[in-house]
Amino acid sequence: MPPAPGDREARRKDVSEAVWQVLADKGFGGLTLRAVAAAMGVSTGMLMHYFPTKRALITHALDLLEKRTDERPRRERPAPGLATVRAMLLDILPVTPGDTARNRVWVSSWDLSLADDRLAAEQAARYTRLRAALRPHLEAARDLGELPAGADPERLAATLVAFTHGLVVQALFDPDRFSVELQTALLDDFLASTAAAPGPHTQS
Known about the structure:
Strand content: under 5%
Number of helices: 9
Helix content: over 70%
Radius of gyration: 20 Å
Number of strands: 0
């Protein structure tokens, strides 16, 4: 007899929790059916009903990672302009245990994405969405005079994302050096330098 819909949904949640546990502990490099089955205390045969291929398991893991990222608590957007940009970038940095776990999983997924054209395109699309989310707040900052009149929001968004993700990687590898306080101070310093710098396309 097939399981009732409620039982099937509960089991799916158990499977997702086990996948996330393996990702948080071992990253994508350690994500296997055997590891997920061990985390659940079930056979790999049972998991084959959910993930008939390694690709199916990876796809589910990436979807789960994006879902958890989208649903994570976010800081209040305090005001138009750079204050909101700062809050959005702080939401990315590994400044809480949950943020650290998500970032570790994201970084571990990059190797897979670099080796797979479809996954690479999806990763590129995520960065495109992040830059697009920052752009209107940078435009507001420019209009408010917080940025130079000649500042290019598209280029600044790319610069800020590149800086923030570079800081993420350093903080993951050297958390003792890159404390929450230092990460915050470095971000504030970078935003201050951005506000003071002339726009990339300003005419002399």
